[in-house]
UniProtKB/TrEMBL annotation:
It comes from Ascaris suum. This is Major facilitator superfamily domain-containing protein 10. It holds the Pfam family MFS_1. It comes from the Eukaryota. GO terms for molecular function: transmembrane transporter activity.
Length: 454
């Protein structure tokens, strides 16, 4: 099994030593997930270069002009300065919000279908969708074709939801937090290493002058990783959903399509509310609200950090990359050393504790005038980042019935996608209208209200 013998996976395997009966499926799943995340994140540092690429006259089209006009109108409305750097960030933010909005539409539906057909077929379907999106990206000579690739990628981006359901299938309730920590570690590794590949492609695009180099090289790299991921899943992964637990039917799923995309129904978990006791439904709804509000505020802070560090500390792209590398490594260590050891009965209290960490993080970052103070705020930010989502996901998974875990986790992650679609737009509006200090002060007050009344 030399295919899985690389440092990232060896680290993950080392932190599973405390898990009873570690399964072969876990290692295969996390390995495939790493390929998936490397392919997904390698584009992140490329957005400014990609936007510049499609701004050239020979690649520019009507859709690009529409995006550019919309971005300028939004910047004028909130008083944001016009500069090439900030224009690229806003442009990338719009594309990111579009991707999250499409994921919001597809994630719960594909998760529910995995309760009918099994995890492996739907995981492969999702990955084949990503493969198609990367292929279209590799051929994207115009902005419209590139956006089409992002649309297909967003609609098929359910691999994380299904991977989470697989963890719920193979781990007992008292150990599910350890399984979720593994997914969190994979995320941290993916978001550390993947952008490094993207940074390399961005740098090499300045050396190679051919127009097709920028999108061809990165897209072909993502294609290769996704093909390897498909190969790993097809040959080595077994189905994890017990056929006896497949009580849902495809008719049930299609008849309730509206329930999977209507926001009010999603917040009430209507798609799965008839499968568990009323008390558990009420608790699940509270977790869903907390998750949405937390990610709404968190994603806004995450998006505006690039503006803040550029304005206050004059960070360039390299310094901002080091900032994200710092938080990524800290998150990985916390998830490997702390999160996996949290017992199931302590998850609720730990979630509240971790959400509370974002409050001093907001306050510290808002008022930081030196880099030491700023990095102190980043440390608190990383603590919350490492703990909240894996633990909340574990809490919701433990409440779900055995035959509706895919649908439940799909709905739950869908709320996160909606938060990530809206949060950056809301936060950037406040950031430029009233300034970063007041913007982040409002943010920590919202989180405080979530803890008190959520």
């Amino acid at each position: 099994m030399l295919l899985f013998n690389y440092p990232s996976l060896r680290f993950i395997m080392s932190v599973t030593s405390g898990i009873q009966k570690p399964t072969r499926t876990t290692f295969i799943l996390i390995s495939a997930l790493l390929f998936d995340l490397f392919a997904f994140t390698c584009i992140l540092p490329l957005f400014p270069s990609i936007i510049d690429f499609y701004a050239k006259q020979q690649h520019r089209d009507q859709l690009y002009d529409i995006f550019e006009t919309t971005t300028k109108i939004f910047q004028d409305a909130i008083g944001a300065p016009h500069s090439k750097r900030f224009n690229s960030v806003f442009f990338g933010g719009i594309l990111g919000s579009l991707f999250s909005a499409l994921q919001f539409l597809s994630s719960p539906l594909l998760g529910a279908l995995s309760d009918v057909y099994g995890r492996k077929p739907l995981l492969l379907l999702s990955i084949f969708g990503s493969l198609l999106s990367y292929f279209i990206w590799s051929q994207a000579s115009t902005f419209s074709i590139f956006v089409l690739s992002r649309i297909i990628g967003g609609l098929s981006r359910a691999s994380i939801s299904i991977a989470t359901a697989i963890i719920s299938d193979i781990y007992p309730e008292e150990q599910i937090g350890k399984g979720m920590a593994l997914i969190g570690i994979a995320f941290s590794i993916g978001f550390i290493i993947g952008p490094m590949f993207g940074a390399y492609f961005s740098h090499s695009s300045r050396i190679f002058t051919t127009d097709d180099h920028l999108y061809n090289t990165a897209a072909n790299f993502a294609l290769l990783l996704t093909l390897i991921e498909i190969f790993v899943i097809l040959l080595f992964m077994s189905e994890t959903l017990n056929p006896l637990k497949r009580k849902a039917t495809v008719t049930d799923v299609w008849n309730n399509c509206a329930v999977y995309v209507k926001p009010s129904a999603l917040f009430r978990f209507c798609a799965v509310s008839n499968t568990i006791a009323k008390r558990e439904v009420l608790i699940m709804r509270a977790y869903g609200r907390a998750y949405f509000i937390y990610l709404f505020i968190y994603s806004g802070l995450e998006f505006t950090l690039t503006f803040l560090t550029h304005m206050r500390f004059h960070y360039d792209s390299m310094q901002q990359g080091k900032m994200y590398l710092f938080t990524g490594i800290l998150m990985m260590l916390l998830q490997g050393g702390l999160v996996r050891r949290i017992p199931a009965e302590k998850l609720h209290q730990i979630v509240l504790f971790a959400i509370a960490f974002i409050i001093p993080a907001f306050i510290t970052i808002a008022f930081a005038e030196t880099q030491i103070v700023f990095y102190g705020g980043l440390t608190l930010y990383a603590v919350a980042s490492a703990i909240v989502v894996p633990c909340l996901t574990s809490c919701v998974s433990n409440l779900a019935s055995a035959h509706s875990k895919g649908a439940t986790i799909g709905v739950f992650r869908c709320l996160g996608a909606l938060a990530r679609a809206l949060g950056p737009l809301f936060a950037s509006t406040l950031f430029w209208l009233i300034g970063p200090t007041i913007c982040y002060t409002i943010g920590w007050n919202c989180v405080d209200c979530t803890i008190r009344y959520g």
